[in-house]
Amino acid sequence: MILQNTPVLLSIFQPEHMLVIFLAVVLLFGGKKIPELMRGIGTGIREFKDAKDNVKSEIEEGMKEKDKDEEIKQLRQQLQQQQLAQQAKEMQQLPK
User: Fold this and answer.
1) What is residue 1's predicted lDDT score, i.e. its pLDDT?
2) How far apart are CA 2 and CA 16, in angstroms?
3) Which residues of the chain have pLDDT under 50?
4) Interatomic CA distance for residues 74 and 68, integer angstroms
């Protein structure tokens, strides 16, 4: 009756269950294959992390480029406004 009050997920990972799972893995793969299996899992995890970091850095670079593009656009607008203001000032100074 204790299982009624505990979540099912927690009841799956009891020490007895983990021991049975470990024994099944040893029987299926054998003692010599387990280190190779763990190495493969480690390599897979490492490659996944590297890919995740690469995607993250590419996104950050894209955001930086977008910020630079917007800054260039603003600077061009400011330059055009200054040029227009300068032209208007020169037009006002012309004799009529």
Assistant:
1) 44
2) 16
3) 1
4) 10
Structure tokens at 56: 């993250």
- Whether pTM > 0.70 for this model: the answer is no
pLDDT value at position 81? 92
Token pair of 5, please? 């009050």
Between CA 24 and CA 43 the distance in angstroms is 23
Q: Residues 9, 12, 14, CA angle at the centre, nearest 5°?
A: 120
34, with CB counted inside 10 A (0-12, 13-18, 19+), is: middle
Write out the H or E segment, with its range, that includes residue 71: helix 15-93
